[in-house]
């Protein structure tokens, strides 16, 4: 079959396709697999009970006082929404955000997408790629990632080529709960502000995930405010990927605040509260951006999926989504992080392993300094032993990883698995890594 250039670009093997294949295979496999590799959220019973109850109620909520054929479930699956997304959900989101933040939003500030991955496909192609400048000359603009490593799913979304510029981090040694053996990435603002692409007008947007996938880093309020100032100075939007952030799922343990203004594009998702299958992403932005996203939705999807919207609407209206996030989801992952850190320290505490300070998200990021093989090779060894993690080199879109050894020395492990899987998986990682450091 002859595919176009577009087809060839999107069918070549990518980091994200490898990750999704491994995840799918592990779920289908009849062999026991220690699944520490994927981005699937955890099963949290208290949260799932609320989803199930809401789901059941949608089928017989008798919305129009007639019968269940008029229930929200059937009205939402039996009709397209307009391309901006389900109107009742958008109204509930506007009410929710205005209740909790002084953003003064209207429905013109919110659009829905089929998962936030879909939003990044739109946004990175809207703000990265070929532009016409004032002289009608073509300028190639990139998405600036102020702090590499970043989310693997950004890497391949550009329709043509890859348009990323990334800034390598400052690596600070820090303590965590009074213990040594941790580090934290910080934005290198000097490198960022001196980046030729930024100064010369070849950046179309700045984007960061906060908390960051893969590291669990949370950029500080001060870092965010400096990024926001830089974005305004260069007249480009600041895109904040809030997939793990506040107010839902609120998997964030450091002291951080969320701000929004007209130059900020905030991306939310229902996935990490435990609903990845409903494919619901939310964009909060200036009306011009919302209109562009709606136009793209019309072409690509006709209208975004409505089922997630139907389930989440009542949870936003009475703030249950926030209570679940604060009282169930966040404490669950914080406990998982504590358990995983303890197990890792027991397994490899005497070796040169460092852990990125766990500040949020559903991962730990481990640094095996001076390991004599790359973590791509480590990934293959661990996979043969039935333990899946993700090697670090895929998390550096915009970085020439051949020139950056650190990009081959880390792994991402999910902490969403049950405790036994954490115990078994970390045991295998420990055995392999200790043997490598011991030169065996
Ligand atoms: N952004 C980040 C940082 C993620 O980790 C993910 C998924 O893992 C996404 C965006 C995309 O999520 P979804 O398309 O399920 O909303």
From TrEMBL:
Matches recorded under SUPFAM superfamilies: PLP-dependent transferases (SSF53383)
Pfam families to which the protein is assigned, alphabetical: Aminotran_1_2
InterPro entries assigned to the protein according to its UniProt record, in alphabetical order: Aminotransferase_I/II_large, Class-I_PLP-dep_aminotransf, PyrdxlP-dep_Trfase, PyrdxlP-dep_Trfase_major
Listed GO CC annotations: cytosol
Cofactor(s) annotated in UniProt: pyridoxal 5'-phosphate
GO molecular function: pyridoxal phosphate binding; valine-pyruvate transaminase activity
UniProt keyword terms in alphabetical order: Aminotransferase, Pyridoxal phosphate, Pyruvate, Transferase
Aminotransferase class I/classII large domain location: 185-421
BP-aspect Gene Ontology terms: alpha-amino acid metabolic process
PANTHER family (alphabetical): AMINOTRANSFERASE, VALINE--PYRUVATE AMINOTRANSFERASE
Identification of the protein by name: Valine--pyruvate aminotransferase
Species in which this protein is naturally found: Psychrobacter urativorans
Species lineage: Bacteria, Pseudomonadati, Pseudomonadota, Gammaproteobacteria, Moraxellales
